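Format notes (please read before filing issues)

Several people have asked whether sequences and C-alpha coordinates are stored in separate files. They are not. Every record keeps both together, in the order shown below: the sequence lines, then the C-alpha coordinate lines. Line labels are part of the format and must not be stripped during preprocessing.
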Amino acid sequence: MRGLEWFVGEDRAQPEKDRPLGAFNGSVFSALQVSRGKPAPDLFRYAAAQLGVPARRCVVVEDSQYGVAAARAAQMPVIGFAGGITPAHQLAGASQVIVDMADLVDTVGRLLGPDGGGGDGDGDGEENDVAGRPVSPASRDDVGMPARRRVPASDGAAALRQWAADPAGTPRPVLATAVRYTLEELGARAPGRTLEVRVPPYGAVQCIEGPRHTRGTPPNVVETDPQTWLSLVTGRLTWHAARLDGTVRASGERSDLGDRLPLWPGAARPE
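Then the structure lines:
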Protein backbone atom coordinates (compact mmCIF):
# COMPACT_ATOMS: atom_id res chain seq x y z
CA MET A 1 0.00 0.00 0.00
CA ARG A 2 1.45 3.32 -1.02
CA GLY A 3 2.26 5.93 1.58
CA LEU A 4 2.72 3.51 4.47
CA GLU A 5 5.80 2.56 6.46
CA TRP A 6 6.14 -1.18 7.15
CA PHE A 7 8.20 -2.69 9.96
CA VAL A 8 8.88 -6.05 11.61
CA GLY A 9 8.77 -6.41 15.39
CA GLU A 10 10.33 -9.76 16.33
CA ASP A 11 9.90 -11.16 19.82
CA ARG A 12 13.17 -13.06 19.41
CA ALA A 13 16.41 -11.59 20.63
CA GLN A 14 17.44 -11.27 16.99
CA PRO A 15 15.32 -11.76 13.83
CA GLU A 16 16.12 -14.88 11.87
CA LYS A 17 18.82 -14.12 9.32
CA ASP A 18 17.34 -16.33 6.59
CA ARG A 19 13.99 -14.57 6.48
CA PRO A 20 13.30 -12.27 3.49
CA LEU A 21 13.23 -8.94 5.34
CA GLY A 22 14.89 -6.73 2.74
CA ALA A 23 11.57 -5.18 1.74
CA PHE A 24 11.36 -3.51 5.14
CA ASN A 25 14.35 -1.24 4.42
CA GLY A 26 16.03 -1.86 7.76
CA SER A 27 12.85 -1.30 9.82
CA VAL A 28 13.30 -4.54 11.75
CA PHE A 29 13.17 -4.39 15.56
CA SER A 30 13.69 -7.10 18.15
CA ALA A 31 13.00 -7.78 21.82
CA LEU A 32 16.70 -7.13 22.47
CA GLN A 33 16.01 -3.42 22.02
CA VAL A 34 13.36 -3.13 24.75
CA SER A 35 12.93 -4.11 28.39
CA ARG A 36 10.00 -6.46 27.88
CA GLY A 37 8.85 -8.63 25.01
CA LYS A 38 5.31 -9.51 24.02
CA PRO A 39 2.65 -9.44 25.47
CA ALA A 40 4.03 -6.18 26.87
CA PRO A 41 3.58 -3.23 24.47
CA ASP A 42 7.23 -2.10 24.62
CA LEU A 43 8.35 -3.50 21.24
CA PHE A 44 5.52 -1.95 19.23
CA ARG A 45 5.81 1.38 21.02
CA TYR A 46 9.57 1.43 20.42
CA ALA A 47 9.16 0.65 16.72
CA ALA A 48 6.52 3.35 16.28
CA ALA A 49 8.72 5.88 18.06
CA GLN A 50 11.68 5.03 15.83
CA LEU A 51 9.53 5.57 12.75
CA GLY A 52 8.00 8.74 14.16
CA VAL A 53 4.44 7.42 13.80
CA PRO A 54 1.81 7.83 16.55
CA ALA A 55 0.20 4.64 17.84
CA ARG A 56 -3.23 5.55 16.48
CA ARG A 57 -1.80 5.56 12.95
CA CYS A 58 -0.20 2.12 13.30
CA VAL A 59 -1.79 -1.21 12.37
CA VAL A 60 -0.21 -4.38 13.75
CA VAL A 61 -0.46 -7.71 11.90
CA GLU A 62 -0.05 -10.64 14.30
CA ASP A 63 -0.38 -14.42 14.25
CA SER A 64 -0.03 -15.01 17.99
CA GLN A 65 -2.21 -14.30 21.00
CA TYR A 66 0.71 -12.63 22.76
CA GLY A 67 1.25 -10.32 19.81
CA VAL A 68 -2.43 -9.36 19.75
CA ALA A 69 -2.28 -8.60 23.47
CA ALA A 70 0.85 -6.49 22.97
CA ALA A 71 -0.75 -4.45 20.19
CA ARG A 72 -3.85 -3.79 22.27
CA ALA A 73 -1.71 -2.72 25.21
CA ALA A 74 0.12 -0.34 22.86
CA GLN A 75 -3.27 1.16 21.85
CA MET A 76 -2.81 0.04 18.23
CA PRO A 77 -5.42 -1.57 15.96
CA VAL A 78 -4.41 -5.16 15.26
CA ILE A 79 -5.17 -7.60 12.46
CA GLY A 80 -5.05 -11.25 13.49
CA PHE A 81 -3.80 -13.63 10.79
CA ALA A 82 -5.42 -17.05 11.13
CA GLY A 83 -4.20 -18.49 7.84
CA GLY A 84 -1.10 -20.11 9.30
CA ILE A 85 -0.57 -22.16 12.45
CA THR A 86 -2.74 -20.13 14.84
CA PRO A 87 -6.51 -20.76 14.77
CA ALA A 88 -8.80 -17.76 14.72
CA HIS A 89 -10.25 -18.35 18.19
CA GLN A 90 -6.79 -17.83 19.71
CA LEU A 91 -6.65 -14.33 18.23
CA ALA A 92 -9.56 -13.01 20.28
CA GLY A 93 -9.22 -9.29 20.80
CA ALA A 94 -7.94 -8.50 17.32
CA SER A 95 -9.68 -5.61 15.58
CA GLN A 96 -10.16 -7.86 12.54
CA VAL A 97 -9.18 -11.46 11.72
CA ILE A 98 -8.17 -12.54 8.22
CA VAL A 99 -7.25 -15.94 6.84
CA ASP A 100 -5.85 -14.81 3.49
CA MET A 101 -3.06 -12.28 3.05
CA ALA A 102 -4.77 -11.15 -0.14
CA ASP A 103 -7.20 -9.35 2.19
CA LEU A 104 -4.46 -7.53 4.13
CA VAL A 105 -4.28 -4.26 2.21
CA ASP A 106 -8.05 -3.75 2.18
CA THR A 107 -8.25 -4.53 5.89
CA VAL A 108 -5.46 -2.07 6.74
CA GLY A 109 -7.27 0.58 4.73
CA ARG A 110 -10.52 0.00 6.61
CA LEU A 111 -8.80 0.16 9.99
CA LEU A 112 -6.92 3.37 9.20
CA GLY A 113 -9.92 5.00 7.57
CA PRO A 114 -9.91 7.59 4.80
CA ASP A 115 -7.86 10.07 6.82
CA GLY A 116 -5.31 7.53 8.06
CA GLY A 117 -6.23 8.30 11.64
CA GLY A 118 -7.10 4.81 12.80
CA GLY A 119 -8.65 3.92 16.13
CA ASP A 120 -7.34 3.62 19.66
CA GLY A 121 -6.94 -0.14 19.41
CA ASP A 122 -8.33 -1.00 22.83
CA GLY A 123 -11.96 -1.52 21.97
CA ASP A 124 -13.08 0.38 25.09
CA GLY A 125 -15.43 3.32 25.46
CA GLU A 126 -17.65 4.52 22.65
CA GLU A 127 -18.46 1.96 19.98
CA ASN A 128 -16.48 2.62 16.81
CA ASP A 129 -16.44 1.13 13.34
CA VAL A 130 -13.33 -0.50 11.87
CA ALA A 131 -12.00 2.89 10.77
CA GLY A 132 -12.25 4.22 14.32
CA ARG A 133 -15.28 6.45 13.66
CA PRO A 134 -18.16 6.52 16.20
CA VAL A 135 -21.10 4.32 15.26
CA SER A 136 -24.46 6.07 15.47
CA PRO A 137 -27.44 4.08 16.83
CA ALA A 138 -29.10 4.27 13.43
CA SER A 139 -26.17 2.54 11.73
CA ARG A 140 -25.79 -0.42 14.10
CA ASP A 141 -28.13 -2.63 12.12
CA ASP A 142 -26.58 -4.03 8.99
CA VAL A 143 -27.91 -2.60 5.74
CA GLY A 144 -27.70 -6.00 4.00
CA MET A 145 -25.14 -5.20 1.33
CA PRO A 146 -23.67 -8.37 -0.25
CA ALA A 147 -19.98 -9.18 0.08
CA ARG A 148 -17.78 -8.05 -2.79
CA ARG A 149 -17.06 -10.80 -5.30
CA ARG A 150 -13.48 -11.50 -6.34
CA VAL A 151 -13.79 -14.88 -8.04
CA PRO A 152 -15.44 -14.87 -11.49
CA ALA A 153 -18.51 -17.10 -11.44
CA SER A 154 -17.27 -19.22 -14.33
CA ASP A 155 -13.92 -19.88 -12.62
CA GLY A 156 -15.58 -20.66 -9.31
CA ALA A 157 -18.12 -23.03 -10.82
CA ALA A 158 -15.41 -24.85 -12.78
CA ALA A 159 -13.29 -25.23 -9.64
CA LEU A 160 -16.25 -26.58 -7.68
CA ARG A 161 -17.04 -29.13 -10.40
CA GLN A 162 -13.41 -30.24 -10.45
CA TRP A 163 -13.49 -30.71 -6.68
CA ALA A 164 -16.77 -32.67 -6.93
CA ALA A 165 -15.19 -35.07 -9.41
CA ASP A 166 -12.21 -35.84 -7.16
CA PRO A 167 -12.22 -34.15 -3.74
CA ALA A 168 -9.04 -35.81 -2.47
CA GLY A 169 -7.11 -35.16 -5.67
CA THR A 170 -8.05 -31.52 -6.19
CA PRO A 171 -4.96 -29.27 -6.48
CA ARG A 172 -4.64 -26.61 -3.77
CA PRO A 173 -5.15 -23.63 -6.11
CA VAL A 174 -8.38 -25.17 -7.42
CA LEU A 175 -9.52 -25.98 -3.90
CA ALA A 176 -8.82 -22.39 -2.84
CA THR A 177 -10.86 -21.01 -5.75
CA ALA A 178 -13.79 -23.31 -4.96
CA VAL A 179 -13.79 -22.32 -1.31
CA ARG A 180 -13.60 -18.57 -2.01
CA TYR A 181 -16.29 -18.78 -4.67
CA THR A 182 -18.71 -20.62 -2.39
CA LEU A 183 -18.04 -18.23 0.50
CA GLU A 184 -18.81 -15.31 -1.81
CA GLU A 185 -21.97 -17.08 -2.92
CA LEU A 186 -23.10 -17.43 0.68
CA GLY A 187 -22.41 -13.73 1.22
CA ALA A 188 -24.45 -12.85 -1.86
CA ARG A 189 -27.41 -15.02 -0.87
CA ALA A 190 -27.40 -13.96 2.78
CA PRO A 191 -25.89 -10.45 2.90
CA GLY A 192 -25.04 -8.96 6.26
CA ARG A 193 -22.30 -8.79 8.91
CA THR A 194 -23.77 -10.62 11.88
CA LEU A 195 -22.00 -13.96 11.26
CA GLU A 196 -18.43 -14.63 10.12
CA VAL A 197 -17.77 -17.90 8.31
CA ARG A 198 -14.10 -18.92 8.23
CA VAL A 199 -12.55 -21.64 6.09
CA PRO A 200 -8.81 -21.39 6.74
CA PRO A 201 -6.45 -21.05 5.07
CA TYR A 202 -8.43 -19.92 2.05
CA GLY A 203 -11.04 -17.39 3.04
CA ALA A 204 -13.78 -15.95 5.22
CA VAL A 205 -17.00 -14.04 4.70
CA GLN A 206 -19.37 -12.01 6.84
CA CYS A 207 -23.05 -12.66 6.20
CA ILE A 208 -26.60 -12.75 7.64
CA GLU A 209 -28.61 -9.60 8.34
CA GLY A 210 -28.86 -8.35 11.90
CA PRO A 211 -26.86 -6.33 14.42
CA ARG A 212 -23.65 -5.22 12.76
CA HIS A 213 -20.30 -6.36 14.12
CA THR A 214 -17.73 -3.54 14.09
CA ARG A 215 -14.68 -4.37 16.21
CA GLY A 216 -12.92 -7.32 17.83
CA THR A 217 -13.90 -10.96 17.53
CA PRO A 218 -17.38 -11.36 15.98
CA PRO A 219 -20.03 -12.69 18.41
CA ASN A 220 -21.15 -15.30 15.86
CA VAL A 221 -18.47 -17.42 14.18
CA VAL A 222 -18.46 -20.60 12.11
CA GLU A 223 -15.13 -22.26 11.29
CA THR A 224 -14.38 -25.44 9.38
CA ASP A 225 -11.88 -26.99 6.98
CA PRO A 226 -12.07 -26.72 3.16
CA GLN A 227 -13.25 -30.29 2.49
CA THR A 228 -16.00 -30.08 5.08
CA TRP A 229 -17.13 -26.68 3.80
CA LEU A 230 -17.42 -27.82 0.19
CA SER A 231 -19.23 -30.96 1.32
CA LEU A 232 -21.71 -28.76 3.18
CA VAL A 233 -22.41 -26.34 0.33
CA THR A 234 -22.95 -29.20 -2.15
CA GLY A 235 -25.15 -31.30 0.12
CA ARG A 236 -22.73 -34.19 0.54
CA LEU A 237 -22.72 -33.51 4.28
CA THR A 238 -25.51 -32.09 6.42
CA TRP A 239 -25.03 -29.28 8.90
CA HIS A 240 -26.34 -31.48 11.71
CA ALA A 241 -23.88 -34.28 10.92
CA ALA A 242 -20.95 -31.88 10.71
CA ARG A 243 -21.83 -30.38 14.08
CA LEU A 244 -22.14 -33.81 15.65
CA ASP A 245 -18.76 -35.05 14.42
CA GLY A 246 -17.00 -31.80 15.36
CA THR A 247 -15.79 -30.86 11.88
CA VAL A 248 -17.66 -27.55 12.19
CA ARG A 249 -17.13 -25.22 15.15
CA ALA A 250 -19.96 -22.73 15.64
CA SER A 251 -20.35 -20.15 18.39
CA GLY A 252 -22.96 -17.49 18.99
CA GLU A 253 -26.74 -17.36 18.90
CA ARG A 254 -26.87 -16.72 15.14
CA SER A 255 -24.25 -19.24 13.98
CA ASP A 256 -26.66 -21.95 12.76
CA LEU A 257 -26.37 -22.37 8.98
CA GLY A 258 -28.61 -25.42 8.85
CA ASP A 259 -31.37 -23.57 7.01
CA ARG A 260 -28.96 -21.97 4.49
CA LEU A 261 -26.92 -24.99 3.45
CA PRO A 262 -26.49 -26.61 1.02
CA LEU A 263 -26.18 -23.86 -1.54
CA TRP A 264 -26.57 -26.38 -4.38
CA PRO A 265 -28.67 -29.30 -3.09
CA GLY A 266 -28.03 -32.65 -4.68
CA ALA A 267 -25.13 -31.77 -6.98
CA ALA A 268 -22.02 -29.63 -7.17
CA ARG A 269 -22.86 -28.16 -10.57
CA PRO A 270 -23.70 -24.48 -10.06
CA GLU A 271 -24.62 -22.52 -13.16
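For reference, the curators noted about this record: The radius of gyration is 20 Å. The mean pLDDT is 78.
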